[in-house]
Amino acid sequence: MASITIKNLTKKYGKTVAVKDLNLQIEDKEFFVFLGPSGCGKTTTLFAIAGLIKIDSGEIWIGDELVTSAEQGIHKPPHEREISMVFQDYAIYPHMTVFNNIAFPLQIRNTDKHEIEGSVKKTAELLGISQLLDRKPRQLSGGQRQRVALGRAIVRRPKVFLMDEPLANLDAKLRCQTRTELKKLQLELKVTTIYVTHDQVEAMTMADRIMVQKDGVTEQIGTPDELYNHPSNLFVAGFIGSPEMNFMDCTLFEEKKELYLDAKEFRIFLPAKMPSELRSYIGAELIMGIRPEDIYENICAEGTVQENAIRMTIDLIEPVGPYLLLHLKAGRIPLVATVKDTKAKASQEVVMAMDLGKIHIFSKETTKAII
Amino acid sequence: MFLLPLWTDITTTFKSLNDLINTIPVQPPLSPTIEPMITAFNIMERPLLNSLTFTVAATIFSCLLGSINGYALTKIRFRGSNIMFLLFSIGIFLPYQAVLVPLVLTISRLGLYNSLGGLILAHTTYGITITTLLFRNFYGLIPDSLIMAAKTDGAGTWTIYRRIILPLSLLPFVVAAVLQFTSIWNDFLFGVTLARGLEAMPASVALANLKGTTEFNWNVQMAGALWYALPILLIYLGLGKYLIRGYMAGAIKG
């Protein structure tokens, strides 16, 4: 059991900067997710923690032990770090039986034979693969292989689990199921876990905290709730949430001491409770964001006044099941809204309203969130 | 049609000198005899043994070293590994004749001239180039994550080689071994230059010597050729199945 501290980590591949000046503190027993599109540096960070790659600058601490320091020339090999790792392609040894695969980390450490057998059996039981111990990997299904890889990781009770997209190769149904099991397992074993994924649903459902990365730069670190409801910039706002948040260019202006957002096709009256620093952005180019579920069909949203009712045309209605996806157009601005039900038909004009308590405003220049 | 030479070899082998004159080559012997087989064997016994010894040894050494090289070149990234590989590849295309003089000089300086050791060394060195290429290509198919997993599981470089890489290498070993065995066994040039006396003379050289200058004992020569071809024939018959699988290994994931 250990916390992980990363200080000023930078890793370059040639001229490309894979990870830039990363600072991070992961608490003991935390389920921490690195989230980002491919090539954002999340796996590189994971490999650096594992000790599989050397870094160009910075420090990595596991617990109170300094395991990597580019400046002091410290680089502990992976097996001295008390970590274990699950890979995307499982990386189970094809020539060994399931038993030997799980036992491998213990055999390498010259653990006593009886002890190995006990640990392997216990682990297999925990993962429900006891009946598979004599099989070879090629006789297993994807889900079973995934469990074997997991078994190999947990059998020696490391201080930290590192998981590199472990569910990416499973089919959708199994992925959901395994996701829940994995989370339960982590809660049961109480081991600090770092989980790399590009799937925001996985991140949101499993994580205690998430770090969103893009092009090697940390965009935001926070709980799933913080990332969803208070994204700190345009990228995080757009990356998290499905269907995606609606964005539109707008400017802020003041009329009779009241603040309005002007999106050209429509304007929105901002209630007085908006933070006062917003006034300094009057006239500046802004981007407004609103999540599809915060656009309502009827004028019943909080803080809505008559002026905020926006006329829109329905382009297309997509029934998803639990809700309907409305593709709308306010003039030339496309919007997506999720509604429980509607009587309206495609190409019909409807009156929509936005929940003003839930709108996000970003600076177009810095892409940082203002509210 | 392609079996005709072998057929002729077999028919001629079992012919007496009389049959040799009275029949055409493809005809079976009128009164079969194993006399030529025995005569040829008596002459070639020692050279065959020599050949077998240094071929087996050089095959094992070159395969093992090629496997280690391939592992190092694909899974341990070190500075200059690409240049190293390039040099190995160039080695494959070096003609035997080009290295003959320096080879003989080196071997004799090492005191290995006219010994099985010298032949083993020469063939191993020459073979490493092609075996390295072969193993490197095969190990390129083994996913890196397997190596990384083993590293995090606590295995060092040699443990990974021994416990992960080597057990997965049956196919390339068969392919490389057959390739090496055949080419070393068939080699004439190194044998004729590095060995002078009977104690190190390879079977290929002994077979050539059977030709004689005035006599033409076709049956004995053919018997010698049969003896000489036998090990290769046996290997191909025995390992053919693996060989085909090995040649197709590109399509199979490690």
Describe the structure.
The complex is a heterodimer of chains A (371) and B (254). With 371 residues, chain A is of the alpha+beta class. Helix content of chain A is 23%, strand content 34%. Chain A has 2 domains: 4-239, 3-Layer(aba) Sandwich (Rossmann fold), CATH 3.40.50.300; 246-363, Nucleic acid-binding proteins (OB fold (Dihydrolipoamide Acetyltransferase, E2P)), CATH 2.40.50.140. Chain A contains 8 helices and 21 strands. A 6-stranded mixed β-sheet of chain A has the order 7-8-9-3-10-11, sandwiched between helices. The relative contact order of chain A is 0.11. The mean pLDDT of chain A is 90. With 254 residues, chain B is mostly helical. Chain B has helices at 4-13, 17-22, 35-75, 81-93, 96-109, 116-139, 144-153, 157-165, 170-186, 189-194, 203-209, 218-247. In chain B, helix 3 packs across helix 6 (116-139), helix 4 (81-93) packs across helix 6 and helix 9 (170-186) packs antiparallel against helix 12. Chain B is elongated, with a radius of gyration of 22 Å. At the A-B interface, strand 7 and helix 2 of A face helix 7 and helix 8 of B.
Question: Which class best fits the helix and strand makeup of chain B?
Answer: mainly alpha
CATH class of the largest domain in chain A: Alpha Beta
The CATH superfamily of the largest domain in chain A appears as P-loop containing nucleotide triphosphate hydrolases
What would you call the quaternary organization?
A: heterodimer
Computed structural class of chain A: alpha+beta
Give the low-pLDDT segments of chain A: none
Number of helices of chain A: 8
- Chain-averaged pLDDT of chain B: 87
* Gyration radius of chain A, in Å: 25 Å
Largest sheet of chain B: none
Question: Care to count the β-strands of chain B?
Answer: 0
